[in-house]
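Appendix B. Worked example

We walk through a single record from start to finish. Start with the input: the chain for Gfo/Idh/MocA-like oxidoreductase N-terminal domain-containing protein, Candidatus Enterococcus ferrettii, length 326.
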Amino acid sequence: MRIGIIGLGSMGKRRLRLIQDNFSEKIVCGIDTNLSRRQEVNAEYNITVFENLEEAKEKFDIDSVFVCTSPATHETIIIQALNLDCHVFTEINLMNSYYEKITDLSKKLKKVLYLSSTFLKREEINYIKARLKNKNNYIYRYHVGQYLPDWHPWENYQDFFVSNKLTNGCRELLAIEFPWITETFSDIEKVESYSRSISNLQLDFPDTYSLLLRHSNGVIGTITVDIVSRTAKRDLTIISEEDQIEWGGNPNNLLAWDMNSSTMKKIELYKEIQHDDNYSHTIIEDAYLEEIREFFDVVSGDTISEYTFEKDDKIINLINQIEGLA
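Next comes the structure step. The output line below is what the pipeline stores for this chain.
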């Protein structure tokens, strides 16, 4: 497999590094319109770099791409990559107006179109999902937040796509969280949304959302999403008469009720954890690696994608409803 990593920012470098460290048989090149990024990646990772996709196809003969650019650029790049006979792995898109077009094109050209949904690969999520299977006698509350300028402290937040109203930070958090939430608690049947801005950040969209959700199986939950929290937050509590689960967002703070001892006990799921210190404690590399592995297995025909564009279409429509765009 000959892979082009399109977009050599933080996410492109993460995908590149994980492929190099874990799939040495894969041959990788980098693609970015930014000369300084190309030079940096060429020096640090010792790979060939190109300015555009056509050049990479012609000179490197790529057959697969990872789309790691700003979500607003994804539509054009995905269509171009498919038409150049490439399988496509794309980071979250945040917009879905073109989904029918690209899914039809991928089927026509018989190319894999794979969409990232990283938290579905977290061991903590899989544990929670298994523990709650076939149950609905519980409620949950969940808070996700981190101060927007801290997301990429090496650049001005206003130069980052999460400050764009169409691809804003709250929207991205919802797009990250809703796939595992619906897989775990069932489809969202009804949502009440309240939003406001409580910070001095220069943004043209709300920086805080509070949601009340009712799921199709009767479960009720509350979610707060913000880009204001000065400490990175993923704080989940699931409550029932017979059980309780608490998760602070990283592998070291998953707790569950032990009926025998009548205490909360720590759940150990990882033998070791890969973490990049440039990111918050709630972000680990393991799930990103598992997505890459699944993409390669889908391309080879050994499995099917856990997450699909059809599922994501529903998620983005829900987010549009919450933002008042539907």
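Two observations about the output. Residues 2-115 form a domain with the Rossmann fold fold (CATH 3.40.50.720). The chain has a mean pLDDT of 94.
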